[in-house]
User: Fold this.
Amino acid sequence: MPQSASTRLHPIVALRAMRNLIRNRGDTKQVFLLIEALRGKTTLHQLARFRQSETGQRMLAERPGLLARLSDRASLAALPLGSFGRAYYEFMAAEDLSAEALVELSKVQRPVADDEVTWFRARNREMHDLLHIITGYGRDPLGEACVVAFSYAQTGQKGFAVIAAVTAFRIARKLPGQHVLRAVFEAYRQGRRADWLIDAQWEGLLSQPLDAVRARFGVSPPTYYPRIVPDVRRIIAAMEAQSAQPAAL
Assistant:
């Protein structure tokens, strides 16, 4: 089995990354450092499962480039309204994001791995924003916590569990009485119930209606998140307004 040079866990590195992320939630690099520190053998287990499916075997043989497809903004913008790919394009444009930027942020030091493992890890990284679309969660802190909770259920990556739990408890303290923890746990349960998305052929799904893609993989819409997210965004707006005020003389 192809494997990386090391599958050790690095809890101290993970703790340091989590502390840095708490200080600055916009420091996305810390997310990748944390995930890498707690990766262990998870990727190898997921790759072994990937090899067992016909779709996985075919993709390992062909090594399709998901990044190239997601970076073709003109092609995505030309897709019909209501399609998966058009929804992805509009989401990325509204958030001023790009698939290429995610690749740059994810460049952290990691053990040397063979080409198969490297391709598999890259594909899993590049599908992150597609999960936002298929699950219906935004890029606000609660939405990100829900997406990584969903991802933890799908992959078993311990770093996802840590990020989801810490973020959920921090938001819950600021929104007492709201079902923040239920929202994140609901996302985890969605990930458990849904089909395994790791071997989805995203390139071919982008032209299909978003609702049909969700139905195909058994991804149910969230119930708690839409009720809470307006308050989360209100808090963020208030914090940004406060930080933008000039310091008192």
